[in-house]
Give the backbone structure.
Amino acid sequence: DSGVTQTPKHLITATGQRVTLRCSPRSGDLSVYWYQQSLDQGLQFLIQYYNGEERAKGNILERFSAQQFPDLHSELNLSSLELGDSALYFCATSPPTGELFFGEGSRLTVL
Amino acid sequence: AQSVTQPDIHITVSEGASLELRCNYSYGATPYLFWYVQSPGQGLQLLLKYFSGDTLVQGIKGFEAEFKRSQSSFNLRKPSVHWSDAAEYFCALYGTASKLTFGTGTRLQVTL
């Protein structure tokens, strides 16, 4: 158990819909990262937040957005969903030394 | 720019045999390096990390990795593989602007 909690574990929705994925970090970790993992793209970095502020952006689509709240939990919002958005979405948090601790992931299926 | 290369997409070893997974990196300074393991349907678990100092680092589950600056490598090893080690292994580099870059992964299959 990494200490990082992600909900929901599984999500099935239709194209055009919007979903929100939630991440609760390990106690004391200020950084939150979001990754997308799909068979054809591998593990792709989406975005990082540090103590409520956006720190780095990766291959995140404009239809996707994220935020980190004062209690340090984070949400990833995915809108206008397409079939190609079906993937595992991981949240990870880290102490200042940089190693990431991953949640179990949220599996999104878009039909 | 920083990058991580895992040249082997898929490796098969027999249970009890030794294992070495290759990882090469590109980075202008001394990086922080990590190995992660992912079992099917699971998140990534940190196996070990290298920050500085001793170039041979020990991790969980009997894994070790050696940092070789001259070869820009950080290969993962295990002397005797168990069937439960079958998983996907990712090498990662923490470098510029707090960015963590992953390799494409190596899928390990263990035959009995």
User: Anything to note?
Assistant: DSSP finds no helices and twelve strands in chain B.
